Amino acid sequence: MPNSKCLQKSEPLWKEWDQKAQKNGLRHQVNAVNGDCYVGQWKDNMKHGKGTQIWKKKGAIYEGDWKFGKRDGYGTLSNPDQEKGKYRKVYSGWWKDDKKSGYGIQFFGPKEYYEGEWCGDQRSGWGRMYYSNGDIYEGQWLKDKPNGEGMLRLKNGNRYEGYWQRGMKNGSGRFFHLDHGQLFEGFWVDDVAKCGTMIDFGRDEAPEPTQFPIPKVGSTHQGPVATPRETENSTSPQPPTHTQAHPAWPGLAQPSPAREQTRFCFQSGHPHGDWQRPRQIALPESAAPHKVGSTPQDGGLGLPCSPIQPLTASLQIEILDPNGVLEEALAMFKKTEEDED
């Protein structure tokens, strides 16, 4: 019985030709139908390895790493400069899946550029931005905007240190007004300071300091000139502030230390801090109608001296003794004199 042999099927010629046409390794130049040009390494008919791509429509050039037809690795992107007639570098850094990812430098203009981290063609992570007006921002970024902790240093030297959100000051932070020698620390909402405190900071070294320093909380200085109050060296006792009522004088109206319009004149010889209710108080005839700015005589009662208008004796007693303590004491003294007579 004769033996029959099966003939082997041959591959179509187009497959053989296509396999020979597959681009692998280094090719000098490959032109696309749209006019783009690539020079570099290939693998399985895809750009893979080192290569240079030129886009005809925009004239941009990319030089760097490729992976399976996409920019992946370190590379530089440049655009043509029509004025100077040469290429201007736009981005230099790392790429992934044809997008900027990792550390890189983006040039937005001659004096404006960003250096830092990228993710998906957007500034994300830590980075430093140099603006064309001279300002510098250094800190965290998210979705191409400052977000998180960061510092903005202005051209004039002032700076903000604090939190950011969506490219605006949001949260706690400090603003250094170094040109005026002041420091503001507070809370911001959408670039607007809502609350905080302002203190002097480097006022002696400031080029344009404020006219007057900021008084400290609890300071003995008052007024715009900040003249010290003579409380320790004074021979006459000072009345307590209007915010605290003295136990011996519950109804005594006290002047405000910040806006004192009426001065109190007391008889010399009273010990400092020893405020005791007098048992008997006499009002001499010589001290009855005191003039503005006058001082009490020996044995007389110290009455307020107003720089605004003269006060009668009865009105002065009402100011000093709105609850009638002095008036009651005077009535008792007159009654005692009548009994003695």
From TrEMBL:
<comment type="function">
    <text>Assembles a suppression complex (suppresome) by tethering SIRT1 and MDM2 to regulate composite modifications of p53/TP53. Confers both deacetylation-mediated functional inactivation, by SIRT1, and ubiquitination-dependent degradation, by MDM2, of p53/TP53, promoting a proliferative and cell survival behaviors. May play a role in the regulation of spermatogenesis.</text>
</comment>
<dbReference type="InterPro" id="IPR052472">
    <property type="entry name" value="MORN3"/>
</dbReference>
<feature type="region of interest" description="Disordered">
    <location>
        <begin position="206"/>
        <end position="256"/>
    </location>
</feature>
<keyword id="KW-0677">Repeat</keyword>
<dbReference type="GO" id="GO:0001669">
    <property type="term" value="C:acrosomal vesicle"/>
</dbReference>
<dbReference type="Pfam" id="PF02493">
    <property type="entry name" value="MORN"/>
</dbReference>
<comment type="subunit">
    <text>Interacts with MEIG1. Interacts with TP53, MDM2 and SIRT1; the interactions mediate post-transcriptional modifications of TP53 by MDM2 and SIRT1.</text>
</comment>
<dbReference type="InterPro" id="IPR003409">
    <property type="entry name" value="MORN"/>
</dbReference>
<keyword id="KW-0968">Cytoplasmic vesicle</keyword>
<protein>
    <recommendedName>
        <fullName>MORN repeat-containing protein 3</fullName>
    </recommendedName>
</protein>
<feature type="compositionally biased region" description="Polar residues">
    <location>
        <begin position="233"/>
        <end position="244"/>
    </location>
</feature>
